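Review box. Two proteins, two foldings.
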Amino acid sequence: METRIPVKEIMTRDVVTIEKGSDINEAAEKMASERVGSIVVTDRNDHPIGMITERDFIRKVFGKDKDRNKLKVEEIMTTPLATINDEMELNKAIRKMRRLNVKKLPVIRGGELIGIVTETDVLSISPEIAEILGEVAKIYGQGPLTEKSEEEWATTGICEECSTFSESLEAVRGTLLCEQCREESDMEV
């Protein structure tokens, strides 16, 4: 059985943007006030041309000895911008994110920015998909998809401490942690 879910079904529709030519302080303030980890840079016609993430700030601004009061967004944005179409199947979008080693992909329709798909969006629906597939398998008499316990399923996802994706989550005192956060937790004890 194959499940086809277009990215438009899970994408975030309210994308935070900033126009090329803006200074990076404005971008940082906008990201903080909107509580997002990235911002899409647009040209004067509102077409997306790049993206700035928290990682870009760390690597390209704070990791260098640059005067952040003089930097413009186009000097630190990641470009060319990798995008996907709103009709792209979710599994293909996930593969593209992995291949490009990115956690966010702007969604485009007819050259216009209409949304963004993030790793968090994908992971937020993962339990529901597993549950749906399990129910479908039961309906068609195939029984459970696996004999794994719930604890065994909870090995891939978002770390509840640092919010990064991990394929090796483990529960520590009731919290799912990645390997790095588990090591830090062990040091604190």
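Next protein.
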Amino acid sequence: MDRYSLRTRKWLDLRFDPALVELVGHSYEPYQPVHGIRPGDWTLGHFMMAARWSWLTEVLRSTGADSFLDVGGAEGYVAQLVRTLHTPRSCSTDLSISACERAHEFFSIGTLASEAHRLPFEDGAFSVVYCAEVIEHLAHPIETLLELKRVARDVVIVASEEGVRDEAARAEELSERALSDHMDRSITCATDFELLFPGWDARIYGLCSELPTEVPQSSRDLVASLAGALHLDDFRSASEATGMIAVLFKEEGPAEFGSTMLTSVRDVVEFAFDHSAVVDPSKATLHGAYLPPRICVKCGAPVELLASATCAGCGLVYSRQWMTEDFVLQDEPDSESALEERLNAEFPDDAERVAACLALQDLLDFPLSPSLSTRQLPLELDAGWTACEGGQLSAHAESGLVLDCDAHDPCLFSPELYLKMDELEGVRVALEVSGLNSEKELFQVFFRTLNRPLWWEQASVTEAYRTEDGSYTFELGLPDAGLFGDNDILTGLRIDPSHHGSHSRILSVELV
């Protein structure tokens, strides 16, 4: 698993794990509307979700699909909707183990953890494969689209609010990418599907032709508003379009596709209004949840899991946590030649198409800067230091960095780090502070790690100091090691020289 995917998985696991969320001082808020969407609760975000589900429902209705996979399905709401309205052979995958556990807990849905570009299913395992609001976050979008294509027997559906119509729009979007744990890094263009799905009936629609200025809250008004927003216009030429949805039929799609869209919209809205999808735990049948046979994501040999299993083909060991099978290759580096090999196998007589796909991956690539593994952190602007919103960061005339902030709580964020927590004892920071305007001041350092990928109070250390302008050297130990778990990796520091507006000259930062 590449470094970006590893960080994303840790971030998602925290987001979907109620125990961990409570530990860091937040309440658990499901990503999907697992308890339904009641009158008064509908937002523009829910409206866009319902639009995606309506397109999906129309595809399922028009094709008579008998099996379904949601790739990046989070807490399983869409798989549950499909299971309730269309077919019991419905399941979900997600990179996050915690998300898969919630899908079992909430819906008794069959699910497993996997990377989107390595799906542990045989060719043509599902009638319809669905991937919504996922492709833009991936480090391997080209391989992912090929995987969706491989495991789909009839239809692939890809939806993204970040989809663009042409290369000029993509270039603009790519220029604005910013590094985060879950960034919109792979901007999909409508022409990508023609490149990767030659011979398929590729229909690219605008997800919504327009959004309401005020989201209706009654069932009847919602149905009317949604149905009016879902047009069968080509996304590339539509005058108005919010988001993109690609419906890719392996054979020629139904001529009358879209003719029952009003019924599909009504089914989706009624499901959200009238059906709290969460399964009563006393009635859950976890062992009976649908999942087709699994294959090894490294060699393709069949894999059968009980508590854990070893692939008979290559010896790779897979594990099972609670009811979640984990098919993510933890320590498997991504080969630079893997995509080219796959493309050559996919398009054996089309070198021009292979070259275009490789060029597209290069265009979308967002290489991470190397992680620092030195204890004496270089205080240079181009090393990757950043400041809080409203903070001004500049180079010191002699050495170090200057952080100016008139607002509350000025913060300095380190470059990305990679150091083993169990080999560290603390941090030493030398600074000069002026412009203090409070009777009390507090110097604080936050530690961000792979297991705790966010800034939270328990993972910080503090020291009070006098409020006169002057020079200070702080030597602080680590937070309680039990908060992080075994073999955790320090990935970042946040240094708060004061909790009020001030002028700080940071002269050195050293891990000890």
